[in-house]
Design goal:
Layout (H helix, E strand, L loop, with lengths): L11 H33 L1 H20 L6
Helix pairs in contact: 1-2
């Protein structure tokens, strides 16, 4: 990993703990999304599930990508 220049406010231990906590939260979110996907698949079938995931992914992409840089 790259060297992180930290202000006196945070120690390396604080940063490592925050990184680990973020990774655990990411795994939990991924697991919840996987379980929700399996439940959705079981209820409505393959094609609607793929459509819902596609539309949801597009909406998330638009929300998280920020404003466009077009004039």
């Amino acid at each position: 990993m790259t060297k992180i220049d930290l202000p006196d406010l945070y120690t390396k231990k604080d940063v490592d703990r925050a990184r680990t906590k973020g990774e655990v939260i990411g795994w939990i979110k991924g697991g919840v999304a996987g379980v929700a996907g399996v439940l959705l698949l079981g209820v409505i079938g393959w094609l609607p599930t793929i459509a819902v995931m596609g539309v949801g992914g597009f909406v998330l992409y638009k929300l998280l990508s920020g404003p466009s840089k077009d004039a």
